[in-house]
Write a structure and sequence with these properties.
The complex is a heterodimer of chains A (166) and B (167). Chain A is of the alpha+beta class and 166 residues long. In chain A, strands 1-2-3-4-5-7-6 form a 7-stranded mixed β-sheet, with helices on both faces. The model of chain A has no long low-confidence stretch (mean pLDDT 94). With 167 residues, chain B is of the alpha+beta class. In chain B, a hairpin with a 5-residue loop joins β2 and β3. Chain B is globular. The two termini of chain B are 28 Å apart. The model of chain B has no long low-confidence stretch (mean pLDDT 95). Classes of the chains: A alpha+beta (166), B alpha+beta (167). The interface between A and B is medium-sized, with 20 and 22 residues.
Chain lengths: 166, 167
């Protein structure tokens, strides 16, 4: 992750995503957190030893590819941090980077690529920072975890496209 | 996986990065860092402001066809943010640890044939029994059966767990 935010941001997979991320997810998507894995949550670690869910992303295992979606961050939690923490987070980039990087590290070695579906201008500023690139399909981005052949890439893009929107 | 018998303010979950959340509690209790083994479960108290405080921790360590349950610890400070009604809901055989162990039993049921615990503390022993452990013929060794196994298989698993010594 980054030493600068390690002290107060904890990223982890949890088996019960809804129990931790339902309010964050509802606020952004007006829908419930998926009831299947994998759920990645970035928690703000407070000085009193408690943890506050601050950001969420969902990874779906589709065999040779993973789909990353449902990214959402609670701005109120970010605003509740102290100034030094906010500065460190700003320097880091965005909390979504931390949850995505966690997912890449955890599931990247088990797949050829991670796809995400993104039409949000602000998120599109962030996604290249973690290696997402255009696929040629509108709103569909990919982070290659291996070096597939061109033909194989086309197959995987087609597979990911069949799941859209996610 | 829901936790139907636990109160709403108690959030039970398997957590990948447990050391970052319950590591200090574990270290206070056992005097050494949390081992980097799977699988960790934590009972969090959800406070009024939405924050989550780690109250209880347990590890379900897979060993062959069984799981060893250990590292159990509870942070009494987690009670600080609870009102009297909430505290009452976590008394006796409804403690956070009882709920957490039962959660682990359900969560990992398809990954093992039995769960073993090793306990030398009278209070923890009562908690273990409330969660569903039963004593074996060996001192301090407990087992929770969740599958129909024949008597010979049960004896073999108990003998294997006993051979491990304290865990």
């Amino acid at each position: 992750m980054s030493d600068a935010i390690d002290d107060f941001i904890i990223v982890t997979e949890v088996d019960r995503g809804p129990a931790f991320a339902e309010p964050i997810f509802q606020r952004k998507y007006k829908a419930s957190v998926p009831d299947f894995g994998h759920h990645v949550v970035a928690f703000w670690k407070r000085g009193d030893g408690s943890f506050v869910p601050a950001s969420y992303v969902h990874f779906t295992d589709c065999g040779d590819i993973y789909l990353a979606g449902g990214a959402a961050t609670d701005g109120n939690v970010l605003r509740a941090m102290d100034e030094a923490q906010r500065r460190a987070l700003e320097a880091y980039g965005a909390l979504m980077l931390a949850t995505l990087r966690y997912g890449f590290e955890r599931w990247g070695p088990h797949c050829d690529a991670v796809f995400t579906c993104c039409g949000d201008a602000r998120a599109l500023e962030t996604t290249p920072k973690v290696g997402f690139v255009d696929t040629g399909v509108p709103h569909l981005l990919v982070r290659w975890m291996r070096e597939p052949t061109l033909r194989r890439r086309r197959e995987l893009v087609a597979k990911a496209r069949s799941f859209m929107p996610f | 996986m829901a936790a139907p018998d636990a109160p709403d303010f108690l959030v039970l979950a398997e957590v990948d990065n447990a050391a970052a959340m319950a590591g200090p509690l574990f270290e206070r209790k056992f005097g050494h860092p949390m081992p980097d083994w799977p699988n960790d479960v934590i009972a969090f108290v959800r406070r009024g402001d939405g924050s989550l405080y780690p109250m209880s921790y347990a590890k379900f360590f897979p060993l062959g066809s069984v799981m060893l349950v250990g590292g159990c610890c509870t942070d009494g400070r987690a009670f600080d943010g609870l009102d009297a009604g909430q505290r009452a809901q976590l008394q006796g055989d409804r403690s956070a640890m009882v709920h957490l162990l039962r959660y682990g039993f359900r969560r990992f049921a398809d990954r093992c044939d039995a769960y073993f615990g090793y306990c030398g503390d009278a209070r923890a022993w009562a908690v273990d029994l409330a969660a569903g452990f039963v004593p074996t013929e060996h001192e301090k060794l407990l087992v929770h059966w969740h599958k129909p196994l024949n008597a010979q298989t049960q004896r073999a698993l108990v003998a294997m767990a006993h051979a491990l010594g304290p865990f």
